[in-house]
Amino acid sequence: MDQLDLFGNPEAQTKTHFEIQNGDYIYVPDFLNKKKADEYFQALLDKIEWKQESMNMYGRQIDFPRLTAWYGENDKPYSFSGITLSPHPWSNELLEIKNRIEPKSGVEFNSVLLNRYRDGNDSISWHTDAEKELGQNPVIASVNFGAERKFQLKHMETGEKVELILKHGSLLVMKGELQHFWKHQVPKTKKKISERINLTFRVIK
Fold first, then answer.
1. Is residue 173 packed enough to be buried (19+ CB in 10 Å), middle (13-18) or exposed (0-12)?
2. CA angle, corner 127, sides to 67 and 81, nearest 5?
3. Bridge partners of 80?
4. What confidence category does residue 84 fall into, taking pLDDT thresholds of 50, 70 and 90?
5. Domain locations in the chain as residue ranges
6. pLDDT digits over 94-151, tens only?
7. Cα 183 versus chain centre, distance
8. What is the DSSP string of 113-179?
């Protein structure tokens, strides 16, 4: 299936749909052209209310190795890793991005979790987006800005792995049973890299 070039990017690649055991995903490396991706990246750096969250682990408060923010409809809090986030109202840029990805994702999203990776030491460990608020077989749409980072999937029963390099302006949509059978992570890297912002749009029930 050919990708519709909605954003004036003549080099946009064909949409790639992967069916894997117990799930499927779509990865569009050039979903946004560089000019538009650069504009969004700078706006997100400047305007989002970033916060350093922490969690209790073995009796100690441990900072998340990244900054986070939660935006969306005002009655949709989100709980994970022992914390509960109350959403900020949608910004203009987040609404624009949401409206652009929904036709590709086939879902109307009501919330977005933002992660800001300041350098290669920031990361997110193996986890699933399968909290009860997300319902059965949630669709998660991930939009990526800034430095390219390695994204890994691992099947919880077979150990099979899938690895992607998430590019500036790319879109990744995880669908089907994937969140119930596959973990995913963004590992640390020793490479000297600049900042990355990841938006994961979701539907809170």
1. buried
2. 55
3. 83
4. confident
5. 16-202
6. 999 999 999 999 999 999 999 999 999 999 999 999 998 899 999 999 999 999 999 9
7. 14
8. EEEEE-STT--EEEE----GGG-SS--EEEEEEES-EEEEEEETTT--EEEEEEPTTEEEEEETTHH
The residue whose two tokens read 């430095």 is 147
HEC secondary structure over 38-98: HHHHHHHHHHCCCECCEEEECCEEEECCCEEEEEECCCCCEEECCEEECCECCCHHHHHHH
pLDDT (mean) for 11-27: 82
* Residue 104 backbone class (left: φ over 0; alpha: ψ -120 to 50; beta: rest): alpha
Location of structure tokens 């997100």: 44
**42: which residues sit within 8 A by CB, 6+ positions away?**
none
CATH topology of domain 16-202: Jelly Rolls (2.60.120)
| CA 89 from centroid of its chain's CA atoms | 18
E strand or H helix that includes residue 103: helix 92-105
- Does residue 52 contact residue 67 with C-beta atoms inside 8 Å? yes
- pLDDT 10s digits, 33-64: 999 999 999 999 999 999 998 877 777 888 89
